[in-house]
Amino acid sequence: MEIITVTKDNLEKEHICCAISNNKDCQVVAKKSWLAERFDEGLVFKKGDMRGKCFIEYIPAEKAWSPIKADGYMYIDCFWVSGQLKGHGNSNILLEECIKDSKEKGKRGLVVLSSKKKMPFLSDGKYLRYKGFQLADTAEPFYELMYLPFDNSADKPCFKESVKSPKIKEDGFVLYYTHQCPFTAKYVPLIEAVAKEKGIPFKAIKFETAQQAQNANAPFTSYSLFFNGEFVTNEILSEKKFEKLIAEKSF
């Protein structure tokens, strides 16, 4: 596998959005716009030279859209290899490329959001541990902040205290999201429409800047859904899954 680094110069022609191939799809448009605004902040997007889910995206932790303290580290936004591209060492190639690049840039190590057990849209903790990552911090109900220090003197990263126990003060459904994940551009409006049709209190709040995301109420800023103040899920819900959740909440 050859590695392609996506930049402003080749962003429009490169396939970058998971399994979405149409450049006019709202998800692709949203993600590419988000990326274009991050490149000057040091974001790096590397992918395999094929279509499919085979990429790693990372950014200096100081610029990360994540409520963490990890000065000097590189934060992995998304690391995804799946389908027929798994089992061929592609994950190792991408991670090694990230490590090499980060060391050359003088970073102290890598940091990434994971979970106690495999959860949708979060990096696989079992794989990370196999590659030498260690547990840096935890947040309710299942989040783990993993890190790979490049030397023993590197300070341990941590979550901000505000997200250790995710809660908000608003009633009804409240969703915080970004376009860091392309799927939100499609699915957030869909569940908004479901809530409106059923007359259910629902508010969607899009983070527009890194500073807003760094002061979020939950660790996963791409998508965090609350109900009556309590955290519900980080999974990007389809209409059917949202309708099932509504039924569970006894509307």
Question: What would your notes on this structure say?
Answer:
The protein folds into two domains: 3-161, Aminopeptidase (3-Layer(aba) Sandwich); 163-248, Glutaredoxin (3-Layer(aba) Sandwich), CATH 3.40.30. It is globular. It has helices spanning 26-38, 90-104, 125-130, 183-198, 210-214, 239-248; strands at 3-6, 44-48, 54-60, 68-69, 73-81, 109-115, 134-139, 143-149, 158-159, 173-177, 202-206, 223-227, 230-233. Helices cover 26% and strands 27% of the residues. The longest helix is centred in the last third of the chain and has 16 residues, at 183-198. The chain is built from six helices and 13 strands. Helix 1 (26-38) crosses helix 4 (183-198). With 251 residues, the chain is an alpha+beta fold. The chain has a seven-stranded mixed sheet with strand order 1-2-3-5-6-8-7.
Strand order of the largest sheet: 1-2-3-5-6-8-7
**Assigned CATH superfamily of the largest domain:** Gcn5-related N-acetyltransferase (GNAT)
According to CATH, what is the class of the largest domain? Alpha Beta
| Count of helical regions | 6
How many β-strand runs?
13
Indicate the low-confidence ranges by residue numbers.
none
What structural class is derived from the secondary structure elements? alpha+beta
Principal-axis shape: globular
Which CATH architecture of the largest domain? Answer: 3-Layer(aba) Sandwich
What is the average of the pLDDT values? 93
Please tell me how large the radius of gyration is: 18 Å
Strand content: 25-35%
Query: What is the percent of helical residues?
Result: 25-40%
Major sheet: 7 strands, mixed
Distance between the termini: 50 Å
Order of helices and strands: EHEEEEHEHEEEEHEHEEH
From the 3D structure, determine the CATH topology of the largest domain.
Aminopeptidase
